[in-house]
Amino acid sequence: MLDVRINFLKNRLYLTLDQMHSKRLERSIPVLENAAKKLTPGFTCITRVVDIREPEATDFKHFEKVDQLLSDFGLAHVVYVGLANGNRLPPFSETPPYYTASTANTIEAAERQLDLWEASVSNATGPRFSN
Question: What CA–CA distance (Å, rounded) separates 73 from 40?
Fold first, then answer.
């Protein structure tokens, strides 16, 4: 399952993942692309991982496409929620993505983390958006 939501006021993408396999992930790429197109470059993302399995070799090309797609549309920072008990997302490509990533225990903690991250980026570089 992949659930995709957008918060336009926060310029934020919300993804919920559970047991993804290649065919389902491949069908999800246009959905992710459509969502990313609606956001302004520099957007952030909260990815909630409900259940992650060990990826198969065929999954990696799709994960790489997702990494590249989100990077191309300007993803700046992602927070992963739900990677407990030693679970972690594997590196999806050999080249690092153009965005940064971190983890949080809850959606609320992820929201606070991204809000603080955005404030620190804004303070360091000036306002991200002009009126």
Answer: 8
